[in-house]
From TrEMBL:
<dbReference type="Pfam" id="PF02392">
    <property type="entry name" value="Ycf4"/>
</dbReference>
<comment type="similarity">
    <text>Belongs to the Ycf4 family.</text>
</comment>
<comment type="function">
    <text>Seems to be required for the assembly of the photosystem I complex.</text>
</comment>
<feature type="transmembrane region" description="Helical">
    <location>
        <begin position="50"/>
        <end position="75"/>
    </location>
</feature>
<dbReference type="GO" id="GO:0009522">
    <property type="term" value="C:photosystem I"/>
</dbReference>
<keyword id="KW-0150">Chloroplast</keyword>
<keyword id="KW-0472">Membrane</keyword>
<keyword id="KW-0602">Photosynthesis</keyword>
<keyword id="KW-0934">Plastid</keyword>
<keyword id="KW-1133">Transmembrane helix</keyword>
<keyword id="KW-0812">Transmembrane</keyword>
<dbReference type="GO" id="GO:0015979">
    <property type="term" value="P:photosynthesis"/>
</dbReference>
<feature type="transmembrane region" description="Helical">
    <location>
        <begin position="16"/>
        <end position="38"/>
    </location>
</feature>
<dbReference type="InterPro" id="IPR003359">
    <property type="entry name" value="PSI_Ycf4_assembly"/>
</dbReference>
<protein>
    <recommendedName>
        <fullName>Photosystem I assembly protein Ycf4</fullName>
    </recommendedName>
</protein>
Length: 165
């Protein structure tokens, strides 16, 4: 029996929205700043208002490009696979381009100690506890009901304890 949970990573609706908002907002700042430089806007001076507008425009533009690239590369996306038949746990994630782009972790079924749900300021994360290793986060930060359902179903499947902090 195999269970596989998909992880969306950076390809979330909120990241798409922020990328578009930053891109178009920064273009507005750039347009206004350059319009001040070429004296197309009379009620704004180039120094200091127009210069600051250009600075923030470039800053927002490059930040939107960075966010767009993280969405395009799918940073943090992947899956968690729990295979009872072959007795292993596989955790796969995509990273930044390069020789270490793929993070592919395999653990023996016997090395699984348990699951832990951590709560910090009304945000909950599910961790896999591995013998001799640090805890590995399995889920994105989410609401309590969503994490609780997934954690209890996974603990029952893995036949391990579930602790909360």
């Amino acid at each position: 029996m195999v269970r596989r949970y998909s992880i969306s990573g950076s390809r979330r609706l909120s990241n798409f929205l922020w990328t578009f908002i930053l891109f178009f907002g920064s273009n507005g700042f750039l347009f206004t700043g350059f319009a001040c430089y070429f004296n197309k806007i009379e009620n704004l001076q180039f120094f200091p208002q127009g210069l600051v507008m250009i600075f923030y425009g470039f800053l927002g533009f490059f930040l939107s490009i960075y966010l767009g690239l993280t969405i395009f590369w799918g940073l943090g996306s992947g899956f968690n696979e729990f295979n009872k038949r072959d007795s292993y746990v596989r955790i796969f994630r995509w990273g930044f381009p390069g020789k270490n782009r793929r993070m592919n972790l395999y653990f023996s079924w016997e090395d699984i100690l348990g699951l832990r749900v951590d709560s910090q300021q009304a945000q909950y994360t599910l961790y896999l506890q591995i013998r001799g290793k640090k805890e590995i986060p399995l889920t994105n930060v989410g609401g309590f009901e969503q994490i609780e359902k997934q954690a209890s179903a996974l603990a029952k499947f893995l036949q391990v304890s579930l602790t909360t902090f």
